[in-house]
Fold this protein.
Amino acid sequence: MAAHPRGIYVCIEGLDGSGKSTLFKAITERMQACGHPFTTICPTRASHPDGWLERLYKKWAFAQSSSAIRAFIYAARSAQACAKTKWDTPLVLGDRSVVTSYVTRWRRWFNSPLLSRLVVDLLERSAPGPDHIIYLTAPIPVLRQRLAQRGAPLDIDETSERAVQMGIAYDELRTTVCIPRLRKSTWHLIDASKAPEAVADDVWQLLMKIDPAMMAMGTAQRPCEVS
């Protein structure tokens, strides 16, 4: 796991359809408008989508449906993202984090939380635990409606069954299970059933409390205008 100095690491988490990517884009635009120093990390996205590993993964349907292969693919993506992230930037904003890996692998093998944790810890040793986890919550029917409106084919982790399973995993990680890497992480629940702009306002106010430097820049008065 990362042992180098770093800024405040804040990640956005939540089930598919909760608006993570929309929120991430809105917050980064506000940060840019304010001139507040920050960097971003998206550990579940392919840093090199044209690389041979990603091409094979997209080509073979069985690989996309295999939990084990997906774990290795996401571990490779995470390692690439962590390696190129400037962790000493005052604020590091993540669209997902290693928390997503714990959630998607949770109880996948023999219904064992310990085995799930060990697999993620082994595959994603370089991924640090976030200082703050912004967890977007919304009723599953709302999430299902949003995914349906998106019009894209559903991923294997976007089914109703998986939404329930992953929701339980988030709750267990947040309230009952001690993950060493997340021991110092602070969870913040945000109501994601509201309009995207309202969710962004809530998160912006939260970030100003998390990062005092944002207050010092005078952003406490109102969110920076984005043209």
User: Anything to note?
Assistant: The first strand starts at residue 8 and ends at 14. The domain at 8-213 is CATH 3.40.50.300 (Rossmann fold). The chain has ten helices and five strands. Residues 140 and 163 are 7 Å apart (CA to CA).
